[in-house]
Amino acid sequence: MFVKFVLDTSICKANTSGFVMEEVIECENQNHDACGGVIEYPNGTITSPSFPALYPILKECIWEIIAPPKHKISLNFTHFELEGTTHQHTDCGYDSVTIYSKLSENRLKRIGTYCGNAIPPTATSEGNALRVEFHSDKSVQRSGFAAVFFTDIDECSLNNGGCQHECLNTIGSYMCSCHNGYSLHENGHDCKEGECKHEISAPFGTIYSPNFPDLYPPNADCVWHFLTTTGHRIKLIFNEFNVESHQECAYDNVAIYDGESESSSLLGRFCGDKIPYPISSSTNQLYMVLKTDKNKQLNGFTAMHSTSCGGYLRATNQIKQFYSHSRFGNHNYNENMDCEWTIQAPPSSNVQLLFLTFDIESSENCTYD
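RESULT FIELD:
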């Protein structure tokens, strides 16, 4: 079993070699109304004064979370109960929490103002500073809020991440992509012209065969490599399909592989004018190849790709992370999700699972989420 605790040193600085429960309680009791301050830790927790007891009246608190240059800060609320209507995030004239992205010493960009008891969405700073303001009036009091924050370097902010065209910042990493008509070089940063290769990391979209709806070219060898967040799968649904027919698809064909290359397991090889069945990968990568010969050409295909939660993960002796949904850190998970992960270790080994962030709708017996 893994146990992880965070000592909120913005509330009380004590012996950092551990903690003694009596000392923590005494310190918190002495400072139960203290709030706000400048925080320069890479991750941690902030709470309303007196949390989880009722916050005091007429309180003004300001936290400024400062990350190193070229980093961004994300803030996730784990508890939220302020004066206001059930799902009120507008007209918060009584008690409120307001979050700003601090762009410079005298320039703030408001992300949102929140009250009521609905959990606010994840807030991410534009730069390396995030400001949180809490206000309470002289009447109704509630239990307040608790939120966790973490920082992540924005690799794209320095020299575009070394990408020749587009740089997409992700949690803990980044990805390069290319403009239309170009494909990503094997070095993962440069873009090359004239090749029919597509690196796709967007969570959803539409793909087309070359020249669609006109005829695809002869002697084509086109590749679509789909990559999504670890712990999720790629789903591919064809809307139109018209490729030269052959009993064994020996002329023109579309082949789809469950992984990162043609050496991965083959999920299907298709030709003719019958629309293929929906395809789902078992991991976070899918590889599709269109091959044509020099003879007959048709108008090809269109297909929609999307990301599905869940899938197969292989455990190794290296620590790996996976996420509840593909847009974790920037958006809440969607409604009506049904996700299942299979994590397999080598024979005679165990799988150890440690949650780093956990924020799911609370209900008795967990009947909702």
